[in-house]
Amino acid sequence: MSRELTQTELLVELEHVVEENLNRHLAVAKEWFPHEYVPYSEGRTFDGVLGGEAWRPDDSTIPEPARVSLVVNLLTEDNLPSYHHEIATTFGRDGAWGTWVHRWTAEEGRHAIVIRDYLVASRAVDPTALERARMTHMETGFATEYGTMLQQLAYVSFQELATRIAHRNTGKVSGDPVCERILARVAADENLHMLFYRNLLGAAFELSPSQTMRAVTDVVTSFQMPGAGMQGFARKSVTIAMAGIYDLRLHCDEVLAPVLRQWKVNDITGLDAEGEKAREELNTFMDQLDVMATKFEERRAARHAREAERL
């Protein structure tokens, strides 16, 4: 059985890949400004110390699933300090790794700014409830369940793509061109972040294929979105899934499968017994997930049919 590389060895061996992908990212990433996307002229003073108008549910025509998803997405973005702590602790703050960590954090920070400003200006959600939810969620914080660098790289490779899809589909379901434009812009950032992490993990497969395969399998079979710890997440996830914003089918076909194909996990050679076992577990899980996704689609279609009959 080949020796597993230590985290320090992996950091050193991947440093040049980080630098190459950091330079690529900086060359293609487009500067943008949250304030240009927000319709501030539509805003009105709220009740409270300035004596404005209290928020009412009919202040916005955005459908409920989109409102729920916008709040989940925003609260997820709000936990950026915890995410920064996790990746800075793992990747370090020096060299190309450190430069990436800080750049990624700065870019992610814009997402919460633009989404919150939009929600407040457009009165899409109750701002008091939103702030209370933010406090509760951030007081809980976020700590990765993955103890190795390879697992964390695998996780963010999938998670950034999942977030991109959730943002884009939320924008489409909102029915508001302004909201859709905002979330398309945010999703574009998430896609570039996914490419960075996906490329790094691809390089890790070349360095230590069995070790990396084990990490990928561990993550795929236990994956949860970073907002899973927020209050009422299970109920909110059902609402989001029923609206087709993010569900098992999307997770299987548009997140996991494309990334795994890009890494060519079934073509990788040089695996030891543990690596082969991990690949077998991965393929078995993907088959099971496909079955579960189909069953969910059938249940959702039946539920929508029943609802249509009642109208």
UniProtKB/TrEMBL annotation:
Recorded GO MF terms: metal ion binding; stearoyl-[ACP] desaturase activity
Protein name: Acyl-ACP desaturase
Cofactor: Fe(2+); Fe cation
One GO term of the biological process aspect: fatty acid biosynthetic process
Alphabetical list of InterPro entries matching this protein: Fatty_acid_desaturase-2, Ferritin-like_SF, RNR-like
Residue sites binding Fe cation 2 per the record: 108, 160, 190, 193
Origin species: Acrocarpospora pleiomorpha
Keywords: Fatty acid biosynthesis, Fatty acid metabolism, Iron, Lipid biosynthesis, Lipid metabolism, Metal-binding, Oxidoreductase
UniProt-listed Gene3D superfamilies: Ribonucleotide Reductase, subunit A (1.10.620.20)
